[in-house]
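User: My collaborator and I are trying to settle a disagreement about how two of our proteins should look. Neither of us wants to argue from intuition anymore, so we agreed to look at predicted structures for both before our next call. Could you fold the first one, then the second, and keep them clearly separated?

Assistant: That sounds like a sensible way to settle it. I'll keep them separate. The first protein:
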Amino acid sequence: MVWSRQLVKIRQIFLRLVSRFSDIADRLSLGRLVVALFVLTTIVAVPLLSVWQVALAAGNEVRPLANQRELPGAVVTPILSVRRIPQTLVESNSAGRVQRKLAQVVEALPADSCLSVVTDSKTIISIGADKPLIPGSNLKLLTAAVALDVLGPDARYSTKLLGLVSGSVVRGDLWLVGSGDPLLVTRGYPLTEKYPTITPTDVETLVDALVAQGVTSVEGAVVADESLYDQERYVPSWGDGIRSVEAGPLGALMINDGSVSGTPLKPSNPALGAAAEFTKLLVARGIAVRDAPEVGKASSDTPTVATLESAPMREIVAEMLINSDNNTAELLVKEIGRVGGGVATRITGLNVIASKIAQWGLPGEGVALLDGSGLDRANYVTCNLLTKLLERDSQNGLVTTALATAGKSGTLRDIFLSGPGSGKMRAKTGTLNGVKSLSGMYPLEGDRSSVFALIMNGTGVSTLSYYRPIWNNLATALELGNQKLDVNKLLPLETAPTP
């Protein structure tokens, strides 16, 4: 308001000066008029401009700001300080911690070994990653991935019971036709296994179907049909310590892994053993069988009495990986050969697996495949191949999620019971005399993960005192990938004092 009154007075003075100048101009010549006008402009305009600038400046100061706060002083963190690039520092610090711990793992490794760790598609460590080594059961990772791709995750095995039922009698033979189902078992069999079958196919369901139809006798024999696959019972290069102990004898029709209850040794022909076991089940349920068990090939026009389907392929693959089931791995290879190559043999199945490795662009140099389970010592793979396979599958892939969980399930149920990895790391173990391997996925915060592969070949590596400290240090190192710097601590160190 004060400045408004002053501006009114200035305007009145200016108007009086203009009026007086007009009277003077009437009495002056043109030259003198120009000089007088210049002088008047200088005398009047300069003060007016100064007054106007002061008024504007004062107008900006009329109202003080509410809730004024003192502005912080300038930061004193140097321009080149790493505190100005926190994300880069966090990532490099995390990787550095993992690498320093992994150095302890590397120091303990034998000469014939490899180690590869990849986090978020970035290689953290790669030691001998392209060196072909004996993988043991880590080979099952390849079998699993190809089975899911070629056969499909929803595929099922169908075991059939064929025969001519007339009233309460089966006229002639009762045919049990195998489909290659590796998990075909009796209800009590899983209780006898070291690693109990997780998703069994209950063969006694077929007996239930006969009882439900009122059948009380079979006028012929129970005849087993295993014609879907070839009759190679064992991989030729397997030693005596593996045959019938770790795997086999193999065939398209196996009940209880080829064993017969009450008999200490497995029959050389698993189909014959299946026919004998099924006959026992029928008799136990009050169905008389006239003739002894046999093996043969059913006619295509024999009527179907009942069909038994397995769990979906994704669960069968999980069974193989979690429990390291050798028979399942070998039968899957034959099924891969049948579906993917047209011939249900081990060789055809392995060729399909090799073709898939190339098709997927995975590193196949130095890889040698003799079986699907990893029992053969002539199998060779690389850590690079295993980590690339797991990367391709991804953290939530069908292979990765089918692995045993540390301290919880399968071959890892008694390992990593506490500490890093317990209850969350998923991995596949591998063990032969002089061979120890561990490959899998370690989940990290924020949907991140690390994939890893560790294979050791050498005298004594499969002993508990040798590999356990190495495995523990590996888990500890992988867990360090979760440790991050506090971003708040990456702010400027302090502020300069306010001037």
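The second protein, kept apart from the first:
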Amino acid sequence: MSVERFRALWRGRRRPALISVHRGLWSQAPENSLAAIRAAAGYGIIEIDAQLSRDGVPVVIHDADLIRTTGQAGLVAETDSAPLTALTLLENDGGPAGATSTQTLPSLDAALRAAGPEDYFDIDVKHPREVEAIAAFLARNGLQSRGSLKVDTTNVTDIDRLLSLQDRFGMMVMAKVNLIEADLTLIQALTDAGVAAAEVFFDDLDSLAKASRIVGETMALSTYSLDPVHCCGLSDARAKRDPEAVWGTLMDAGITMIMTDIAPDLACYLDTRA
């Protein structure tokens, strides 16, 4: 079962924290592409985005529209999977200046089969209404042990939903918790429920440290140092200059999994810290 697989990965980590590679290693290939996923293999966790095509097939793309990553007009939800997966991706994170690559937009099935058996996926379902369908797809295709699904969690009812997904589809779920809005009793409830990991957003390192003391060794705490979205000024750009001030601060406060766009830099830093 993926919960036990993830716990073994987390507790047996050789570095002080697990590395989550954001949208694959897209400095070397288009984000969320098979090439980016293969390049991210070996870091431990590969974060990818998923949403449903018009005909109900999960595909790997972040935006609701296609323009930034493919240069084509259209919406994922209004396009069938066959034409979607035939689209050529733009290099790196795309945009108007993005060069055309040799990679095409992958299905979720192809993405999960692209990395090695020891790599674990953090699957960010872009539309909450699609979580159930994607969980069912993974279970139906024997892919439920390849990763976890992230679900926004604000109350006890949401925790029950997490556990229901886990019980019915045999896969791990990761809670997404906003510590700016949520009381720490939610962290306690997640810990008591046996949820394996929570991705947290925060604006105060003291509240993060308190959450870490609550979870102890029961639950992994994850966050991100991404330049577009990060907490307390702890960004990848700053980590390039002073990794201890960013990633060291996060780990000192209790973070055990860090999502980044510069995985090679984080890996080098963690090796020296270890």
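Some points you might bring to the call about the second protein. The longest helix spans residues 156-169. The longest strand covers residues 44-52.
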